[in-house]
Specification:
The protein has 440 residues and is mostly helical. 68% of the residues lie in helices and 1% in strands. The protein contains 13 helices and two strands; from the N terminus they run ββααααααααααααα. Helix 3 runs antiparallel to helix 6 and helix 9 runs antiparallel to helix 10. The longest helix is centred in the middle third of the chain and has 47 residues.
Length: 440
């Protein structure tokens, strides 16, 4: 006679039989390992049916004949069946489930490494051959980042994006044309006057006894005649053709930068979002905040640099009118353009204008030197700190080193982009690198 198992409990380990079920079926015999019945409590129906495999007394989800995890079926199964819980599916699923990865044998590793080396060398050759175009792209991106705040301001006033970009681009084009109109006529006029007065200069030199003695003593005329042969003329023509090529190449590069800048301005938001979407989702928010801060600093630097350059040009124009320099507007444009170059630009412009002043008269030249010395002191210690340090906040030593490295790498372009790059590196160092080092 069997003994009923207590309600809500398990039969003792030494029992060999259990109570018969209520439906009068055969008695349930516990398994040999003594772990109790595998039937669910309360005679609940078993999910799945026959053919289930068990792992740790738990049925494996799926249908009949489903093998345990690890054996991946090859057909008739959707790709989502093999995704881990919480894993995001990749791809659209149109082309089936991804297969198993290739086995990493020595041949495959070596072949992949060789392909990587060849690809890296091909990229190096491509970058070296396209270095000129890449520099133009960098300049256009820099200008687009600097001009984008103006586009945003115009859009906040109700203008559409296309009209705002067209307005900014037209303004920049008018400024460039105005600078060329101010510079080209004086250069052409002075060159023509020099050519016209060249015979008189030669005649005055011939009347000078010291010059005549020098010509006779060193046989200058014979050497000049010997040098004026076919080879010299050919080299001169080559120089003329090279100069023409330089002029047309400069015009082409300027137009290329202008067109690229307009396209980057028109697609600025989409390009920015595309760049942020390449970052993993877990880090995208932080990268976006840091990236927007860098873009804001570049834009603030452009606005500040243009403001300082315009102020220097206007001041020089007023001074040139007071002292009576020729072509005051052209000299003001020269000062404004050279003042955009960090560290050395203002000095170059001051030297150029001072030479024009000395060519006019000695007192005017001395007045130019005194004026630019005083103005640069005011600009360096009063104007520049108030405009730049609030927006860019670049260390002076870092700005100087960045300008020197930029000039050595990219020339004038490197000097222009040096301070924004230093500001970006300084922000990344302060917000990313140093906190990581402190957390270790």
């Amino acid at each position: 006679m069997t003994q009923d198992a207590p309600v809500g409990g398990n039969p003792p380990d030494d029992e060999t039989t259990a109570a018969a079920p209520a439906d009068g079926g055969p008695p349930r015999t516990p398994p040999a390992d003594g772990r109790g019945s595998r039937e669910p409590a309360g005679d609940a129906p078993t999910t799945g049916g026959p053919g289930w495999e068990t792992a740790g007394d738990a049925p494996t989800p799926g249908g009949p004949g489903r093998e345990p995890a690890g054996d991946v079926p090859t057909d008739g199964v959707d790709a989502s069946d093999f995704e881990a819980p919480g894993e995001v599916a990749t791809g659209s699923g149109r082309f089936g489930a991804p297969g198993r990865p290739l086995r990493r044998n020595s041949f495959l590793v070596g072949f992949t490494g060789a392909l990587g080396v060849l690809l890296a060398y091909a990229v190096f050759l491509g970058v070296r051959n396209a270095a000129g175009i890449l520099v133009l792209v960098v300049i256009a991106l820099f200008l687009a980042v600097g001009l984008n705040p103006a586009v945003v301001r115009l859009r906040s006033w109700g203008l559409p994006n296309g009209l705002a970009v067209a307005t900014v681009a037209l303004t920049v084009l008018l400024l460039i044309v105005g600078g060329l109109v101010a510079l080209v006529p004086p250069v052409v006029t002075q060159s023509g006057q020099f050519v016209e007065q060249l015979p008189s200069y030669v005649e005055e030199l011939r009347r000078n006894e010291a010059v005549n003695d020098f010509v006779v003593r060193f046989d200058v005329m014979e050497k000049v005649q010997a040098a004026a042969n076919a080879n010299t003329i050919g080299r001169a023509l080559g120089g003329v053709l090279g100069g023409a090529q330089l002029i047309f190449g400069t015009i082409f590069r300027a137009l290329t930068v202008l067109v690229l800048t307009i396209y980057f301005l028109a697609w600025f938001d989409r390009l920015r979002h595309l760049g942020y979407s390449l970052v993993p989702r877990s880090r995208r928010r932080r990268v976006q905040l840091i990236g927007d801060e860098i873009l804001a600093k570049v834009g603030a630097y452009m606005v500040g640099a243009l403001s300082i350059a315009v102020l220097a040009g206007v001041t020089t124009f007023v001074f040139a009118l007071i002292v009576g320099l020729s072509y005051p507007f052209a000299l003001a444009v020269v000062i404004a353009v050279t003042d955009l170059i960090p560290q050395i630009g203002a000095t170059l412009g001051a030297v150029a204008v001072s030479l024009v002043g000395f060519a006019t008269s000695l007192p005017v030249g001395i007045a130019c030197v005194v004026f630019f010395v005083l103005y640069q002191q005011v600009e360096n210690y009063l104007i520049y700190p108030k405009i730049m340090r609030r927006s860019v906040e670049v260390n002076e030593v870092g700005a100087l080193l960045g300008a020197l490295l930029g000039v050595s790498l990219l020339g004038v372009v490197g000097a222009l982009v040096a301070i924004p790059v230093v500001a970006a590196l300084q922000l990344i160092l302060r917000e990313v690198v140093l906190p990581r080092q402190d957390a270790r």
